[in-house]
Amino acid sequence: QVQLVESGGGLVQPGGSLRLSCAASGSISEINAMGWYRQAPGEPRDFVATITSGGNTNYAHSVKGRFTISRDSAKNTVYLQMNSLKPEDTAVYYCNAFTATIPYDYWGQGTQVTVSS
Q: DSSP string covering 72-86, please?
């Protein structure tokens, strides 16, 4: 079992920045990758970014160059630095952890990000 707790969401003006955090606990050693997804009202949950246990990263085209995913292994925490935010980035952002030994996706409770003037 893996537990994920997100923090760092909020209201920001267009062009602003936010940093999301996701703290993992439980069976940390089973995690192969962690990432972020987002879901706007009435829309499906979409991939944003992921980082593997080996440090490889991948980004959705819509956020590449503006968002950066990173991790602090000592704190079992993954971050999403979001710069140059746009109104279309408004969504609930969910942290994800994937375990491959027994394939399973764990999800956090979500944190709201609102980009508006």
A: EGGGTEEEEEE-S--
Q: What is the pLDDT along the chain (117 residues), one digit of tens a residue?
A: 899 999 999 999 999 999 999 999 998 888 999 999 999 999 999 999 999 999 999 999 999 999 999 999 899 999 999 999 999 999 999 999 999 888 889 999 999 999 999
Q: Of 75, 44, 46, which is closest to residue 61 (Cα–Cα)?
A: 46
Contacts of 97 (CB under 8 A, 6+ apart): 2, 4, 24, 31, 33, 34, 105, 106
